Please model this.
Amino acid sequence: MSATAASLRNQFPLLAAAPDLHYLDSAATAQIHRLALDAMLHHEATRRANVLRGTYRLAEAADLAYEQARAIAARFLNAGAADEIVFTSGATASLNLVAHAFGNTLKAGDRVLISVAEHHSNFVPWQMLRERTGIELALIPLGADGQLDLAGLPELLDRNCRLVAVTHCSNVTGAMTDVATLVAAARRVGARVLLDGAQAVQHGPQDVRGMDVDFYAFSGHKCFGPGGVGVLWSRGELLAAMPPFLTGGGMIASVTNEVATWAEPPQRFEAGTPPIAQAVGLGAALEWMMGLPWARIHATEGHLCEMLITGLQCIPGLRLLGPQASAQRAPIVSFDIPGLHPHDICQVLDGHRLALRGGHHCAQPLLAALGVEACTRASIALYTDEAEIEALLDGLDYAVKVLT
Ligand code: PMP
Model:
């Protein structure tokens, strides 16, 4: 194992304690960094109190820690202001929030454009919105190269299109979306752009203002932080124009017997007690990520991805799903071996201490477009090493032998 990967791996308690484990399922959940765990423990042990309610010093310390985490998330995304960060329970909650709050500003006949490559959490909320309001839901298809086919955008993006909501990076194929082309086309008709960043954030800080998008959603557990917390970013003026999604404590300006009025964002969208310690832990993880040498990490991840793809292509009959070249993709690699079920493959691999995911990956429309019902996925993270890719290729050779 290289010195860099070994020193990174040792910063993750679970991996440090299991040197023989090849964890290749970081696209589902990345391992949590020690600093995130320490920050949560410190918070719970010294500052545990509810936020934005108490006037005693302990509660003020909790407020401060929670708001500092918000400011860190804003820096991680290059947001305009900390108030543009809404803490949620995860990417799914963030996407449902937009489908309800922004969705409530849409009317029958308005169009929302998603893609066939979406995770179900950026698919089903829009189908439900269509049922509630009569919006039209259109789909960007998949191109032969495994990328979104943006050639038809001029027809798909008509004047009724209010929102383009697509994944920043596919959780199945690793394909990165061509955000610049999408944003330019959306702007021509005045449509807003949402990116589901669930898979992109693990590979470095993002620049929402540079990309000129309008909404960005992600989960803490996919970027080395805790589960149960996530982020929705949007522009201040857009958040201010949206009604709340969930209602209850903490999100009102006033409530009378007859009527309630709303607090300003972000509190308007944080009804109830938020995941306070989790937000603090996420802040620690994001702060750590912002200090990493990303150019070097991307080069290593790209090299490992290339190595994996080259090795997979030597397995007779194996079909690689999505872009073939590692340059067009994040290091998420899915494949199909006709006649072998991904669950069986994963079970055999588990015997070799290889943790991979097999199934439909909550992206059934994408799998249907790719012509498979299920596939096996290996995802590479910054703690992955060459030896683990070799172990996977050896494990697959063995799996093919015993399963055929
Ligand atoms: N979008 C994408 C692209 C994902 O990969 C995932 C998680 N697999 C989600 C959304 C949903 O994330 P969560 O389950 O953390 O809410």
Summary: The mean pLDDT is 96. The chain is about 40% helix and 15% strand.
